[in-house]
């Protein structure tokens, strides 16, 4: 954002510094501040001073252009420069959201971006106008996606990006046009992946669908527990040609929201935005209004796409060092797996988890993963094997802090029974879908794409699943054989929900005829859960039958003859064929 060549030409009276001169000076300073903030790492609990300085200077610029708009226009200020100030304020809010996971900051970014769009600031013709406009629309689209503004804002922005790219084909350089063409293709694939389910329910923990924490079954007070809570998370995903937009893959996009709380009344806010608000400047208490004091703070999250292993371990070390004493760290790795020098392993994700038991921390013998043919996950292209391949032993030092490890490997075959591997990746990982949107995953598993399911039917399935999850939770907390690890997990509402959905996933795949209850087709966990919630337990069979019978898909599962559930409504549609 360059200063105007006419800066300083308008002089004020009284011998003081005129507003135009002060504005252009601040604009140059703001550019330098913004460049420094843009290069800062997006993890760590301590906020760098540069953020506060950048916010202050851009807030001052915004106020000056409001108070002295006419004089600044006479001095050469262009509308696109006003728009870029607002867009950069939005970007600062989004960067702060990435560091803090505070959705109120994300909402502030949305307000400023929306103001720029409503005012048409980037419609002003100037050198590089198309590139600036496209970049603004793409950043706004990312914020709108994370805020789940899928009904109106997201389709509008996607269509504007496509239309603007078509109009700019002759003015953009060929390399830039190809790059933006690829971005448009990414957007199209991303929106197509789960569009039938986009308005069914939020991925975040929502009181409209999920039980309030105070109503959850609790561990008996006689059971000793440390009271740990999820405090931080690293979300990492890499597959060749996976569905993604910018550095946010479909899997990490789902997990990101799954680990957050849905603000109460946010659906009303989605449709209650006032298009005449100029970036929220008339609402100084907007952040206060958007924060819900009744909700716990979101755990911090860092999304990494194709990181080198040294970078991943650096981020993990920083997070573990800053983790509160009562905090747990979640590590989500979704990637292709390989078994040392012996080729691909059909159960890579399970071996990554189970191989932790093979390592003795007190053992002084050097561990060579390649010699031991240990399972590995690829976090990037295979040319850089040393920096892109992560082994279980790489994570051993961090087990000094409470870790919740989720491994989702494309070569585990655990979630592809009866499906083509490439087709399942077009909608993201089925395992991750079970953890973040279990009803949607169940629909895909039985061959329904969501186009033939109305919202009322979907909501009924959600209600039945909620009953089942509550039954599993009640059984777990009453179990005398529950491992202390799961006692701690059940104390955190977000992790509890992941665990219960895992049980639903494992039970569904255990009973699915296409998987034939093969061990390589089933997800696993360490330490093991009680048999009372196992995939073939009577409770699990009843819970899966609830949902399957409702959707007319009971014939796709192998239930025991004594399994009945009298409360199931009439099935919806016809059952799918066996796979």
Keywords:
579 residues; alpha/beta; six-stranded mixed beta sheet; two-stranded antiparallel ribbon; disordered N terminus
The counted number of beta strands is 8
Q: Count of helical segments?
A: 22
**Order of SSEs:** HHHHHHHHEEEHHHEHEHEHEHEHHHHHHH
- Unreliable parts: 1-15, 267-290, 340-349, 359-364, 411-424, 566-579
User: In one word, what is the shape?
Assistant: globular
Proportion of residues in extended strands: 5-15%
Percentage of helical residues?
40-55%
Distance between the termini: 58 Å
Structural class: alpha/beta
Would you give an account of this structure?
With 579 residues, this protein is α/β, with parallel strands linked by helices. The protein has 22 helices and eight strands. Strand 2 and strand 3 form a beta hairpin. The protein is globular, with a radius of gyration of 26 Å.
Would you spell out the secondary-structure blueprint of this structure?
Elements: H1 19-38, H2 49-67, H3 69-74, H4 79-100, H5 103-119, H6 129-146, H7 153-167, H8 174-193, E1 229-238, E2 244-245, E3 248-249, H9 250-258, H10 266-271, H11 286-290, E4 300-305, H12 309-322, E5 327-339, H13 348-354, E6 375-378, H14 385-388, E7 389-390, H15 392-395, E8 403-409, H16 421-425, H17 430-436, H18 438-445, H19 455-478, H20 484-489, H21 493-511, H22 538-550
Parallel strand pairs: 1-4, 1-5, 5-8
Antiparallel strand pairs: 2-3, 5-6, 6-7
Helix pairs in contact: 1-2, 2-4, 4-5, 4-6, 5-6, 6-7, 7-8, 9-17, 17-18, 17-21, 19-21, 19-22, 21-22
């Amino acid at each position: 954002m360059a200063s105007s060549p006419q800066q300083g030409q308008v002089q004020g009276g009284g011998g003081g510094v005129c507003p135009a001169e002060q504005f252009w000076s601040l604009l140059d300073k703001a550019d330098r501040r913004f460049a420094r903030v843009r290069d800062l790492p997006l993890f760590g609990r301590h906020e760098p001073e540069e953020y506060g300085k950048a916010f202050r200077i851009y807030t001052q610029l915004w106020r000056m252009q409001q108070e002295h708009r006419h004089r600044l226009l006479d001095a050469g200020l262009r509308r696109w420069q006003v728009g870029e100030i607002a867009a950069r304020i939005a970007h600062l809010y989004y960067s702060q959201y990435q560091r803090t996971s505070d959705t109120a900051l994300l909402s502030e970014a949305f307000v400023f971006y929306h103001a720029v769009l409503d005012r048409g600031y980037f419609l002003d013709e100037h050198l590089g106008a198309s590139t600036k406009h496209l970049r603004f629309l793409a950043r706004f689209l990312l914020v709108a996606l994370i805020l789940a503004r899928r009904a109106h804002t997201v389709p509008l922005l996607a269509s504007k990006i496509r239309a603007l790219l078509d109009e700019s084909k002759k003015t953009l350089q060929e390399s830039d046009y190809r790059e933006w063409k690829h971005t448009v293709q990414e957007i199209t694939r991303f929106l197509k992946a789960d569009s039938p389910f986009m308005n069914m329910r939020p991925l975040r923990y929502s009181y409209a669908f999920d039980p309030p924490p105070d109503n959850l079954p609790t561990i008996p007070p006689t059971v000793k527990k440390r009271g740990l809570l999820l405090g931080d998370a690293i979300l990492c995903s890499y597959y060749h040609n996976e569905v993604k937009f910018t550095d946010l893959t479909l899997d990490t996009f789902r997990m990101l929201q799954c680990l957050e709380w849905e603000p109460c009344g946010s659906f009303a806010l989605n449709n209650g935005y006032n298009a005449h608000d100029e970036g929220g400047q008339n609402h100084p208490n907007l952040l206060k209004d958007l924060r819900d004091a009744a909700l716990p703070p979101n755990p911090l999250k860092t999304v990494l796409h194709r990181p080198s292993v040294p970078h991943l371990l650096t981020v993990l070390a920083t997070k573990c060092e800053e983790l509160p004493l009562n905090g747990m760290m979640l590590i989500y790795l979704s990637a292709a797996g390989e078994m040392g020098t012996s080729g691909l392993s059909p159960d890579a994700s399970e071996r990554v988890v189970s191989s932790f038991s093979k390592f003795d921390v007190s053992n002084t013998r050097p561990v060579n993963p390649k010699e031991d043919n240990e399972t590995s996950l690829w976090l990037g292209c295979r040319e850089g094997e040393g920096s892109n391949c992560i082994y279980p032993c790489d994570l051993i030092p961090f087990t000094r802090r409470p870790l919740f490890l989720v491994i989702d490997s494309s070569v585990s075959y655990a979630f592809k029974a009866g499906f083509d591997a490439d087709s399942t990746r077009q909608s993201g990982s089925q395992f991750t879908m079970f953890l973040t949107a279990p009803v949607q995953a169940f629909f895909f598993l039985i061959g329904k794409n969501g186009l033939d399911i109305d919202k009322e039917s979907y909501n009924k399935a959600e209600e039945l699943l909620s009953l089942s999850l509550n039954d599993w939770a009640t059984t777990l907390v009453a179990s005398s054989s529950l491992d202390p690890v799961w006692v701690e997990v059940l104390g955190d509402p977000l992790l509890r929900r992941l665990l219960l959905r895992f049980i639903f996933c494992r039970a569904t795949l255990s009973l699915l005829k296409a998987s034939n209850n093969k061990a390589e087709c089933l997800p696993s966990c360490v330490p093991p859960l009680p048999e009372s919630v196992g995939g073939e337990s009577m409770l699990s069979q009843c819970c899966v039958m609830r949902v399957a019978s409702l959707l007319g898909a009971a014939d796709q599962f192998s239930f025991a003859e004594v399994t009945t559930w009298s409360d199931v409504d009439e099935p919806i549609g016809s059952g799918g064929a066996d796979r």
